[in-house]
Amino acid sequence: MTFELTWHGHSTWHVAVDDTTFLIDPFFDNPHTDLDPSDVETPDYLLLTHGHADHIAHADEFTDATLVATPEIVSYASAELGFEDAIGMNLGGTVDCDDAFVSMVRADHTNGINTGHEYEGGMPAGFVIGDTKPTQVEDAESTTFYHAGDTSLMSEMKDVIGPYLEPDAAAVPIGDHFTMGPWQAAIAVDWLDVDHAFPMHYGTFPPIDVDPDDWVREVESTGTPAEPHVLAADEPFDL
C-alpha cells in the first residue's frame, strides 16, 4: 500500500492511496507554489471542504473528477461549474472511493459561496482519508490522513477524530485570524495523537502571514510525540 501526500500551498493537497488520487481544495493562486492548475493531472476525486473562494477557486479546472462535498456544494458545482459525477455526503458519513475511504468530519468555521447566485454552502467540513473503513476496532495496520479544513480548535478532535478515526497524520491550519493560530493548532496536534503533522493555510494573505516555525515550537512544547513537518510546496511526502 502506498500513501503519498503533496502540499500545493494554502489548503491544497494531493493525496494518492495506491492507484486512487485525491485533490483537496484546489487554489493555486498562492505564493507557495509555482504550479498552474493545468500542470496538475486530474485526480480521481476532488474534495471540497467548504465554499470560500480560496478553497474552490480552481475546482472548475477538474470537472472530470468525481466531486465529494456536502450536498449544497455539490448542487452549486453541478449547476454552475459543470460537474457531472459527484458524491454528496454530510458530516459523520463515510464513502468508499476505490482504494480509500473518505469520512467527513466537522470544521468550526463559516461557509458561503459568493457568486451572485443564491447558494447555501452547508456546513464546513474536514476530511479523513484512510485505506481501511473506520470501525471501533483499533487497526494498527491502517494508514489515515486528516485534512482539518478551515477550523478553530474543537474538542471533537480529542473526543472523536483522534481516538476513533485514528489519523496517522494531520494537516492543520495555523494562519490565525480566520482559523486556528500556531498555539491552538499545536494543541490540536496533541489531541489528535498523530505521528506526523503539517501546517497549512498560512502565508497566503497578510492577515495569515505567520511564521510556521512558531507552530513547530508550540507543537514541541506540548510534549506530543508527533513530528511537525513544514513542507515545501509540491514535494511529495511518503506516509
From TrEMBL:
<dbReference type="InterPro" id="IPR022877">
    <property type="entry name" value="UPF0173"/>
</dbReference>
<dbReference type="Pfam" id="PF12706">
    <property type="entry name" value="Lactamase_B_2"/>
</dbReference>
<dbReference type="InterPro" id="IPR001279">
    <property type="entry name" value="Metallo-B-lactamas"/>
</dbReference>
<protein>
    <recommendedName>
        <fullName>UPF0173 metal-dependent hydrolase SAMN05444271_102194</fullName>
    </recommendedName>
</protein>
<dbReference type="InterPro" id="IPR036866">
    <property type="entry name" value="RibonucZ/Hydroxyglut_hydro"/>
</dbReference>
<feature type="domain" description="Metallo-beta-lactamase">
    <location>
        <begin position="20"/>
        <end position="202"/>
    </location>
</feature>
<comment type="similarity">
    <text>Belongs to the UPF0173 family.</text>
</comment>
<dbReference type="GO" id="GO:0016787">
    <property type="term" value="F:hydrolase activity"/>
</dbReference>
<keyword id="KW-0378">Hydrolase</keyword>
<dbReference type="InterPro" id="IPR050114">
    <property type="entry name" value="UPF0173_UPF0282_UlaG_hydrolase"/>
</dbReference>
